[in-house]
């Protein structure tokens, strides 16, 4: 029987609004970010989606998003493997200083003490695989980050005729099935509009 993984991006943060680089560093959810998390909770409720296990990145913005969704009524585990990419000395700086083009994320930040894209992809794939391989994990919710979610999606993307999405709204919900060490993307939902963004 196929399992399901619901992987989410956190809600909007102060650094998102200010246009600052936010990877390993953190900033609080804005009021809008909190509302986005509540909209995600409503999406799950309206679609009668119930989870048996919950996980979050160790970063505050992800934990707070999950706690709003669950109304702090469920135990969850924090996993460092779900954290966002570390941008090294670019952390907290204006995003305008970042080089343009997704190819620059591959190895650029390593020279500044950050991670490579491969580093991020390897750790999030390992983390999610180890989570979903547990027998009692049939339907899991995990809150992570834009870059981390992208690199995971990139690792399992099977549509050679379609361009892979590179940006996802805050609280975007990635719906995956899991069976025999294989993840398949079912949909990506923006809970604010309740529509697919694929």
From TrEMBL:
Pfam families: His_Phos_1. It comes from the Bacteria. One of its GO terms (cellular component) is cytoplasm. GO terms for molecular function: phosphatase activity. The active site is at 10 (tele-phosphohistidine intermediate), 84 (proton donor/acceptor). Transmembrane segments: none annotated. Gene3D superfamilies: Phosphoglycerate mutase-like. Substrate binds at residues 9-16, 61. InterPro entries: His_Pase_superF_clade-1 (IPR013078), His_PPase_superfam (IPR029033), PG/BPGM_mutase_AS (IPR001345), PGM_Phosphatase (IPR050275). SMART domains: PGAM. This is Phosphoglycerate mutase. It comes from Enterococcus haemoperoxidus ATCC BAA-382.
